[in-house]
């Protein structure tokens, strides 16, 4: 398969993954609690030194994910993110330091991945961002993150269209150097378009009254259910941390 | 190079978040002052572009392929400070949505790729532009080479972070708890891949895009050697100075750097014999070595000033003194050359 087709396929998978990453599962609960909970559980999982505890945590998180409506296929696709380092570091570690350490490395990474996958798939991204803002992350970062996420879709679509139009005009085989030239010019055009688009977006924002200040509506209220979720997650993280030492 | 969660200890992750925070703060201040209200759309669009660029697998000689990180382009187009913010944002989106890099390891990934990558690219890009002058290929060549050096520097930092794990984080039985391989394994392992495939992909895509932009949108990249700013150079030097205590972690002395006293030390003798391929070390230091060792006694011998008890602080002070002396020598030569 030639490089532009591989790239097109990668971009198409990326679009699919981005669309899938938008919250599609049963939502509910205060997003601040979910973000704090994900952070606490991740830090606890990373600190664990016993693989049995990590297996128990992974089973629990997977159970929560499946009960929230996540498919096994999506869950396994999420776990695949940790497999590259597992192959490069954890597998050689079996021969160097034993299978227990290799298992620990893989399980820590997969537990953290599951935790954040669960957060992202059960919480709309705009709520995650508002939760981050409520947790004192600077507003300017929130705004940049939010716009970046939105424009990735557009740029991926633009890149796909450019590659398709280029491929439809190519006859015969291309050499590696031809591919490099084509990818460089595609990336160059995309960069030019991005910069042009950033000016257009800025003018659109300025014409609507944007003066550099960002105000976000904050209407989170902690219900009893949220407090009990926060206490449960904190207790889980503490239990994982203490028993995993 | 996107380090996932669980391979670095929580304290390493916390240290690297702490190390990254001042750079993010300064970058935000500088970029806000320069772009003002344009800051948000410009950084967001470039972060989105870097994200998409990381999907571009470039075919490399030998039938392999690799992808660029966009660090070189970000620095050349946006400058080092805006570049580090844009790349950090792209890395955070990757970690959140694709599990490419961990959340606890985000500080480490941003430090290696976004912060160190952009600063190193900037320093080498400016230096190389001065060397290449106004030749038509100068910008593309300078950007490509600077990006190649930067990605390898980032890989070296990641290798150091992995390599120090088994030294500091072990269980009671002495088994490693995180990445288990020592520096002698992690540095070559990371650098071989980056000096070849990943580095070449960064070089090819950065050089190719800058060549294309110079032809079609020259306004996007600075024309010719711009006024040199010492601030990013100072930031890189500060970064390297902070990292000097890593030298304390290596066991024994470098090959050929043994002192006369080392021939009386049992551990050092073992190292000398190992380095000599098993040949027995002389029972006493050779005469010449003993005689000339007394000729000069360095004031900061072994990078450990006598008035500082903490070895790390000694290393850092030695690095500061060394850099200051080098600057004095270079600036004096420069002044002398101008006068002649």
How would you describe this protein?
The complex is a heterodimer of chains A (245) and B (340). Chain A has 245 residues and is mostly helical. Chain A folds into two domains: 29-136 and 221-243, no CATH class; 139-168 and 177-207, no CATH class. Chain A contains ten helices and no strands. The longest helix of chain A is centred in the last third of the chain and has 32 residues, at 176-207. Chain A is flat and about 60 Å long. In chain B, strands 1-2 form a two-stranded antiparallel sheet. The mean pLDDT of chain B is 80. The longest helix of chain B has 34 residues, at 183-216. Chain B is an all-alpha fold and 340 residues long. In chain B, helix 5 packs antiparallel against helix 6 (138-163). Chain B has two domains: 10-230, Arp2/3 complex 21 kDa subunit ARPC3 (Orthogonal Bundle), CATH 1.10.1760; 260-283 and 303-339, no CATH class. Chains A and B meet through helix 1, helix 2, helix 5, helix 6 and helix 8 of A and helix 1, helix 2, strand 1, helix 4 and helix 8 of B.
Entry summary:
By secondary structure, chain A is mainly alpha-helical.
Estimated radius of gyration of chain B:
23 Å
Q: Biggest protein-protein interface?
A: A-B, 83 and 71 residues
Strand coverage percent of chain A: under 5%
Number of domains of chain A: 2
Q: Structural class, from secondary structure content of chain B?
A: mainly alpha
What does the average pLDDT of chain A come to?
81
Order of helices and strands of chain B: HHEEHHHHHHHHHH
Instruction: Tell me roughly what share of residues is in helical segments of chain B.
Output: 55-70%
Give the percentage of residues in beta strands of chain B: under 5%
The average pLDDT of chain B is 80
Q: Roughly what percent helix of chain A? A: over 70%
């Amino acid at each position: 398969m030639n490089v532009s087709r591989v790239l097109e396929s990668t971009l198409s998978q990326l679009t699919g993954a981005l669309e899938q990453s938008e919250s599609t599962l049963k939502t509910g609960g205060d997003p601040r609690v979910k973000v704090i909970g994900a952070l606490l559980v991740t830090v606890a999982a990373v600190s664990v030194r016993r693989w049995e505890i990590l297996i128990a945590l992974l089973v629990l998180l997977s159970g929560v994910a499946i009960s929230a409506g996540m498919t096994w296929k999506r869950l396994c696709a999420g776990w695949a993110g940790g497999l590259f380092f597992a192959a490069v570091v954890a597998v050689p570690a079996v021969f160097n330091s034993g299978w227990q350490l290799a298992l620990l490395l893989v399980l820590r990474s997969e537990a953290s991945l599951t935790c954040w996958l669960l957060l992202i798939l059960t919480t709309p991204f705009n709520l995650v961002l508002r939760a981050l803002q409520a947790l004192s992350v600077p507003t300017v970062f929130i705004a940049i993150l939010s716009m970046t996420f939105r424009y990735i879709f557009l740029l991926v679509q633009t890149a796909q269209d450019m590659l398709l139009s280029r491929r439809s005009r190519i006859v015969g085989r291309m050499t590696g150097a031809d591919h490099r030239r084509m990818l460089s010019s595609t990336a160059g055009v995309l960069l030019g378009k991005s910069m042009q688009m950033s000016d257009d977006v800025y003018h659109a924002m300025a014409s609507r009254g944007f003066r550099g200040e960002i105000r976000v509506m904050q209407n989170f209220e902690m219900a009893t259910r949220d407090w009990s979720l926060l206490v449960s997650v904190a207790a889980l993280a503490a239990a994982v941390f203490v028993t995993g030492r | 190079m996107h380090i996932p969660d669980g391979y670095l200890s929580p304290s390493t992750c916390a240290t690297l978040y702490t190390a990254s925070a001042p750079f993010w703060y300064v970058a935000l201040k500088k970029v806000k002052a320069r772009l003002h209200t344009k800051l948000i759309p410009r950084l967001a669009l470039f972060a989105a572009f870097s994200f998409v660029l990381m999907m571009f697998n470039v075919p490399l000689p030998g039938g392999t392929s690799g992808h660029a990180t966009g660090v070189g382009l970000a620095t050349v187009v946006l400058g080092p400070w805006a570049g580090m913010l844009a790349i950090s944002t792209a890395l955070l989106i990757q970690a959140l949505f694709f599990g490419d890099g961990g959340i606890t390891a985000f500080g480490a990934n941003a430090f290696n790729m976004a912060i160190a990558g952009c600063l190193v690219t900037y320093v080498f890009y400016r230096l190389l532009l001065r060397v290449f002058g106004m030749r038509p290929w100068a910008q593309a060549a300078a950007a490509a080479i600077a990006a190649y050096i930067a990605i390898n520097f980032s890989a070296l930092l990641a290798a150091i972070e992995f390599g120090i794990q088994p030294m500091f984080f072990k269980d009671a039985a002495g088994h490693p708890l995180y990445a288990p391989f020592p520096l002698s394994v992690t540095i070559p392992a990371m650098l071989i891949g980056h000096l070849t495939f990943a580095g070449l992909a960064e070089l090819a895509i950065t050089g190719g895009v800058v060549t294309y932009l110079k032809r079609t949108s020259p306004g996007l990249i600075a024309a010719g050697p711009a006024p040199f700013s010492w601030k990013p150079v100072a930031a890189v030097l500060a970064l390297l100075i902070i990292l000097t205590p890593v030298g304390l972690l290596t066991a024994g002395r470098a090959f050929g750097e043994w002192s006369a006293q080392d021939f009386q030390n049992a551990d050092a003798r073992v190292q000398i014999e190992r380095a000599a391929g098993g040949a027995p070390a002389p029972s006493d230091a050779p005469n010449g070595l003993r005689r000339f060792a007394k000729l000069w006694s360095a004031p900061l011998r072994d990078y450990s000033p006598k008035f500082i008890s903490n070895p790390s602080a000694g290393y850092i002070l030695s690095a500061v003194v060394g850099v200051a002396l080098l600057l004095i020598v270079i600036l004096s030569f420069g002044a002398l050359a101008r006068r002649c």
